[in-house]
Specification:
mainly alpha, two-stranded antiparallel ribbon, two-stranded antiparallel sheet, 18 helices, elongated
C-alpha cells in the first residue's frame, strides 16, 4: 500500500521537521500508531547508520512490503495471483482496513451528495425565490419622478376656439340634476370628440390615456379647481369643455331639465370651462417662461426614514434648460432634501446654488444609504431565517431521523446555531449565497457528519478550476478527509 513516491514525501517531510526541531509522533492505540509499529518491527535499518532519503525510503518500503517468497505458477508460467512476498504486519493491517475505509468514505460522499447537497440546493432555490420580494430601494429610488410635457392636444387647432376667452371673470358653472347618474355604459370618449378628423385623432390619443373611468369621474364629480395641480386642471377643464361644447348641439341625453334650459346651461358651462382651460394653458406657458421646475403637487416632505418614494413631477421643458446649464439631477435631489424646499424653485435659482445642493445630496445620500444597507441586510436575514426554519421541517432522510431520535434537543441547538450565524452575516454575504447555505446546511444542520468537510473542499476545488469535474473534486476531498483523519492520530512535538 506504500509506494516509493509516498514514502519519499514522508521522509522529506520528516527531514524538514527535524531541521526545525520537531517530529510527528503517532499516538498509541490508533490506526496510524499500529501501522507505524508494524513497519518498525520489520525494519532492517541499523541504528547509527548514516543514510540518505532514498536509502531510508527503501528501508521503510521494504519493511512495509514483507519478505520475498517463491511465486506459484501454472504450466504456462502464469502466477496464481498470490503476493510475491511474505506479508508484513503493515500490509496485513492495510489489507483488512482498506475495504472498510473505502466503503466508509464512499458512504460519506454518497450522504453528502444525495442528502446534504440536495437540501442545500432546495434551500438555495427557496432563498433566491424569496429575495426579490424583499422591498428595498437604492438611494436615488427614493424619488419617483414623472417628466411632464404639455400634451399635443393643448397645442392643436382646438385651442383656436379658446381665443375668445380672455381669462377674465363672469363665467359661472351650473350643475345639471342628473349628470351624476351617468354610468359606466356611457360612451364618454365618443361624446367628447368634435367631428374634426385631425383634431379627433389627437383627442382620442390623449383621452385614451386617461381611461373611461377617469373621464366619467371628471364629468360627474364637481372638483375644486383651486386644489388641482396644473396638469390635472388642464385635463379636468378640457374634458368638461368638450362635453358641454358638444352638449349645446345634442339632444340625446336626459339630464333632468328641458331642452331650452339644457342648451342654455350647456353654453354657460362650456364658456366656464373654456375660460378655465384657456387660463390653465396660459398658466403652463407662464411657468415655462419663468423656469419653474416642478409641479405644485410634488412631494417635498423628504426624510431618510420615509418608506414610500417622494413623487415628483418635473416640467420637461424647464428641466431641459437645467441640463443645458450643466446642472445634474443630483442638485434637484439636494434641493428637495433641504428643510425649506418648496416646489416653485426655478432653473436660474437652482443653477446658482447647484454646488451647494449637490453637496447637500451627497451628505444626505450617505446617511440614507446607511439606512438602506441596514434595511436590506435585515430583509436578507429574515428571508434566510424563514427559509431555513421551513427547510428543517421537511421530510427527513432515514439516517437523519435515526440520529435525531437518539439526540434530544439537537434541532433546538441547530436553530440556535443557525440564528447566531445569520445574525453575524454582512450585506456582502448576499453575493455569496452558496457559501452561506453551505454553512447553514452542511456546517450546522448536518454537523454530525463529514458532509461539511467534503462539500467545502469540493466547492473550493471547483472554484479554483473551471475544468475540474465534481467527481474529481470529490476524490480530492475524500483524500483530504482520510489524510486529516490520519493526522489526528499523531502529535507534532518538539525534539
Amino acid at each position: 500500500m506504500l509506494n516509493k513516491s509516498s514514502v519519499l514525501i514522508g521522509v522529506n517531510l520528516g527531514t524538514v521537521l527535524a531541521e526545525r526541531g520537531m517530529k510527528i509522533v503517532p499516538k498509541k492505540t490508533t490506526l496510524l500508531g499500529e501501522l507505524d509499529s508494524a513497519v518498525k518491527r520489520n525494519m532492517l535499518f541499523q541504528s547509527g547508520h548514516s543514510a540518505g532519503a532514498e536509502e531510508i525510503a527503501s528501508y521503510i518500503l521494504t519493511a512495509s512490503e514483507g519478505d520475498m517468497v517463491e511465486v506459484s505458477r501454472d504450466v504456462f508460467g502464469v502466477s496464481d495471483g498470490r503476493k510475491n512476498y511474505q506479508e508484513s504486519p503493515h500490509d496485513t493491517l492495510m489489507d483488512n482496513y482498506k475495504v472498510d475505509l473505502s466503503q466508509l468514505v464512499a458512504r460519506h460522499i454518497a450522504f453528502a451528495r444525495n442528502v446534504v447537497n440536495a437540501e442545500m440546493n432546495m434551500l438555495l432555490d427557496d432563498v433566491r425565490e424569496a429575495l426579490p420580494n424583499c422591498k428595498y430601494n437604492d438611494a436615488e429610488d427614493f424619488f419617483s419622478i414623472t417628466y411632464y410635457s404639455l400634451p399635443a392636444v393643448f397645442k392643436s387647432e382646438l385651442m383656436d376656439e379658446l381665443r375668445s376667452y380672455g381669462g377674465g371673470g363672469g363665467y359661472v358653472y351650473s350643475s345639471l340634476p342628473l349628470l351624476s347618474q351617468v354610468n359606466a355604459d356611457f360612451d364618454a370618449l365618443g361624446y367628447l370628440l368634435i367631428g374634426d378628423e385631425s383634431v379627433d385623432a389627437v383627442l382620442g390619443n390623449h383621452l385614451g390615456t386617461l381611461g373611461k373611468e377617469q373621464l366619467i369621474h371628471l364629468l360627474t364629480e364637481k372638483i375644486s379647481e383651486i386644489s388641482l395641480p396644473l396638469k390635472d386642471l388642464l385635463n379636468y377643464s378640457l374634458v368638461n369643455y368638450l362635453f358641454y361644447r358638444n352638449l349645446t348641439a345634442r339632444t340625446d341625453l336626459n339630464l333632468g331639465v328641458g331642452m331650452v334650459e339644457l342648451q342654455t346651461l350647456a353654453a354657460k358651462n362650456r364658456d366656464y370651462f373654456g375660460n378655465q382651460l384657456a387660463v390653465a394653458v396660459s398658466g403652463y406657458e407662464s411657468l415655462v417662461r419663468t423656469g419653474i421646475l416642478m409641479s405644485s403637487d410634488s412631494q417635498m416632505n423628504f426624510s431618510v426614514l420615509r418608506t414610500e418614494p417622494c413623487r415628483i413631477t418635473v416640467y420637461q421643458e424647464t428641466f431641459d434648460k437645467l441640463a443645458e446649464n450643466g446642472v445634474p439631477i443630483e442638485a434637484l435631489f439636494g434641493y428637495i432634501a433641504s428643510l425649506d424646499s418648496v416646489p416653485n424653485i426655478t432653473v436660474d435659482a437652482l443653477t446658482e446654488a447647484s454646488v451647494v445642493y449637490q453637496q447637500k445630496w451627497a451628505s444626505v445620500r450617505s446617511m440614507y444609504t446607511a439606512t438602506l444597507v441596514n434595511g436590506r441586510l435585515d430583509a436578507f436575514k429574515r428571508v434566510l431565517t424563514r427559509c431555513f426554519e421551513e427547510s428543517i421541517k421537511r421530510k427527513m432522510n432515514e439516517d437523519e431521523a435515526s440520529f435525531l431520535n437518539t439526540h434530544a434537543g439537537f434541532v433546538d441547538q441547530t436553530l440556535k446555531l443557525a440564528y447566531a450565524f445569520i445574525d453575524d452575516l454582512h450585506l456582502s454575504d448576499i453575493e455569496c449565497l452558496e457559501k452561506v447555505v453551505l454553512e447553514l446546511v452542511a456546517g450546522i444542520r448536518y454537523r454530525f457528519t463529514n458532509a461539511y468537510f467534503i462539500l467545502k473542499e469540493m466547492q473550493e476545488m471547483l472554484a479554483i478550476s473551471e475544468t475540474m469535474t465534481p467527481m474529481e473534486a470529490a476524490l480530492i476531498a475524500s483524500t483530504k478527509l482520510v489524510t486529516d483523519f490520519l493526522m489526528e492520530n499523531a502529535d507534532l512535538v518538539k525534539v
